[in-house]
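To illustrate the input format used throughout this study, we show a single complete record. The first block contains the structure-token representation of the backbone; no residue identities are included at this stage. The design step must infer an amino acid for every position from geometry alone.
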């Protein structure tokens, strides 16, 4: 079930800040995550029990919810 969007309509997201392997942040420093998001309208949430699994999205741009998880790795950063 689902559709593959045309290349110019495919959703994408990329971290703008902090960048990959950014070393400018220090321990316990407050910072704001910044994302570049294309072809997605964020802030929408579908109830998975009612609508999420019922049918694919067919309208563009896609509607979705953006969430971020920041997690420490016990063995240090992965390179």
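Output of the design step:
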């Amino acid at each position: 079930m689902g559709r593959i969007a045309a290349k110019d309509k495919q959703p994408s997201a990329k971290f703008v800040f902090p960048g990959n392997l950014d070393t400018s942040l220090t321990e316990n420093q407050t910072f704001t995550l910044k994302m570049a998001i294309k072809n997605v309208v964020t802030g929408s949430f579908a109830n998975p029990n009612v609508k999420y699994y019922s049918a694919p999205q067919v309208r563009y741009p896609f509607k979705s919810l953006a969430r971020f998880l920041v997690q420490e790795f016990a063995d240090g950063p992965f390179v």
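Structural context for interpreting the output: Helices lie at 48-52. Strands lie at 12-17, 34-38, 40-42, 62-64.
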